[in-house]
Design goal:
The chain is α+β, with helices and mostly antiparallel strands. It folds into two domains: 5-178, Ribosomal Protein S5, domain 2 (2-Layer Sandwich); 185-358, GHMP kinase, C-terminal domain (Alpha-Beta Plaits). The protein has nine helices and eleven strands. The strands form two sheets. Strands 1, 2, 3, 4, 5, 6 and 7 form a seven-stranded mixed sheet that branches. It has a four-stranded antiparallel sheet with strand order 9-10-8-11.
């Protein structure tokens, strides 16, 4: 096999559900990810995974539509065919992942990006990182059926390892924000082990509500995206649900701006408070948290040395993150796992994310 191709997972530090609203988000990649090896095959495409059953098909036959992990790499082949890109009749693609699936760490974007990166090089397509990000988003929107924004594929495709990316999702450009936070601070990832499928969740409903909210504001003001709205624009609504959804977008955008200044100044106490406020907004206004996420977030927020915690990703399960300093008792994590299991009969996973930045 040739050299492996790698794509990392991601956490969003703050700025949830802003990417498809044209706002600024602040994600960073993590140490967990997906590795892909590719080699030639005489006449079939065969997809192998260390987590799933293999799948194979001929490029000349109709591709299946049933659900399965293979739909992600298969959709890349489907895209290449529709673009009339000349591709060989077969490859073996072998995926190895230590990235939890359905946990809000963007395993779906990671597998699309790593597959696109491989074919970009193998077929000499000369795609840029932005090209790969946009194609991955298009595939997930059109072929997988998830109406996701650009954030996940963007940060994974660019993979600026020791930075968070302040991404302008409207203009599709970014600023690198240093994120080597030193030995005193760590970010924990708290995995609820509660899988959620965005396709079958309320994710698309939230996006639809934001589109409705934008249309109402546009009758009064000239804005292109909901993230440009002002808090006073809430007065245009009579529907309380639209008030809540728009209020989250507007206030979360302000939290992103303040977070960038906090991180540039290494003011992690202020950043932690913004994380807490973000979770509260996601819980009450955007209503994308759940009992399990709230349990982990609220319990770890109470501990000495926890500066802030919030759910990360689309919600409805998945992961939370917590910013801790060296006053935090790491032994507490075993107690939290036991409490969580006692309440939900699910064993969570709690681990340090992006360790290379903390040395």
């Amino acid at each position: 096999m040739k050299k492996p191709y790698v794509s990392a997972g991601r956490i969003n530090l703050i700025g949830e559900h802003l990417d498809y609203n044209g706002g600024w988000v602040l994600p960073t990649t993590i140490d967990l990810g997906i590795t892909l090896w590719v080699k030639n095959h005489s006449d079939h495409f065969v997809f192998y995974s260390d987590k799933h059953e293999p799948f194979g098909c001929s490029i000349f036959e109709d591709f299946p539509n049933e659900q399965g992990w293979f739909q992600y790499p298969l959709s890349v082949i489907r895209y290449l065919k529709l673009q009339k890109i000349d591709i060989p009749q077969g490859f073996e693609l072998n995926y190895h992942s230590n990235l939890p699936e359905g946990s809000g760490l963007s395993s779906s974007a990671a597998i699309l990006v790593v597959t696109l990166k491989a074919f970009n090089e193998i077929l000499n397509l000369n795609w840029s990182s932005l090209d790969i990000a946009l194609i991955a988003q298009k595939i997930e929107n059109q072929y997988i059926g998830v109406n996701c924004g650009i954030m996940d594929s963007y940060v994974i495709a660019h993979n600026e390892w020791d930075y968070a990316l302040l991404i302008d999702c409207q203009k599709l450009k970014h600023e690198k924000i240093p994120f080597s936070i030193g030995e005193k601070y760590k970010i924990l990832i708290l995995d609820t082990q509660l899988p959620r499928s965005l396709k079958h969740s309320a994710y698309n409903q939230r996006r639809s509500s934001c589109e409705q909210a934008l249309q109402i504001i546009q009758k009064h003001r000239n804005i292109q995206n909901l993230a440009e709205a002002h808090i006073s624009d809430l007065d245009f609504f009579t529907n309380i649900e639209l008030v809540q959804r728009a209020r989250h977008v507007i206030t979360e955008q302000e939290r992103v701006k303040k977070s960038v200044e906090s991180l540039k100044n290494k003011d992690f106490i202020s950043f932690g408070k913004l994380m807490n406020a973000s979770h509260e907004s996601l819980k009450k206004d955007y209503e994308v948290s759940c009992e399990q996420l709230d349990f982990l977030v609220e319990n770890i927020q109470k501990q000495k040395g926890c500066l802030g915690a919030r759910m990360t990703g689309a919600g409805f399960g998945g992961c939370a993150i917590a910013l801790i300093d060296d006053n935090f008792d790491m032994d507490y994590l075993s107690q939290l796992e036991r409490l969580y299991y006692k309440n939900f009969s699910i064993q969570p996973k709690i681990f340090i994310g992006k360790e290379r930045c903390f040395s």
